[in-house]
């Protein structure tokens, strides 16, 4: 999968199904937004992109133990 061309050069970005949707100044706020979105829409592919490290982290659903 290729990285989107409109990735930020600083901060963090929320990537939903391959499209940058929002940018954040802190990693904590980006991850929290990603987890909230993933909880509401578990079928979406959601990543948090770190512009400084130039890498994206996949966000997985947090399923409650059975």
Describe this structure in words.
The chain has one helix and four strands. It is an alpha+beta fold and 66 residues long. It has a domain at 16-42. β3 and β4 (55-59) form a beta hairpin. The model has no long low-confidence stretch (mean pLDDT 89). This is SPOR domain-containing protein. It comes from Bradyrhizobium jicamae.
Secondary-structure blueprint:
Blueprint: E1 12-16, E2 19-24, H1 27-40, E3 46-50, E4 55-59
Antiparallel strand pairs: 1-2, 1-3, 3-4
Protein name: SPOR domain-containing protein
Features:
globular; 4-stranded antiparallel β-sheet; alpha+beta
Q: What's the number of helices?
A: 1
Strands, total number: 4
Distance between the termini: 34 Å
Biggest pleated-sheet summary:
4 strands, antiparallel
Going by helix content, strand content and strand pairing, the class is alpha+beta
Per DSSP, what share of the residues sits in E-state strands of 2 or more residues?
25-35%
Radius of gyration: 12 Å
Strand order of the largest sheet: 2-1-3-4
Residue-averaged pLDDT, rounded?
89
Poorly predicted regions: none
Shape: globular
- Strand-and-helix sequence, N→C? EEHEE
Organism: Bradyrhizobium jicamae
Protein name: SPOR domain-containing protein
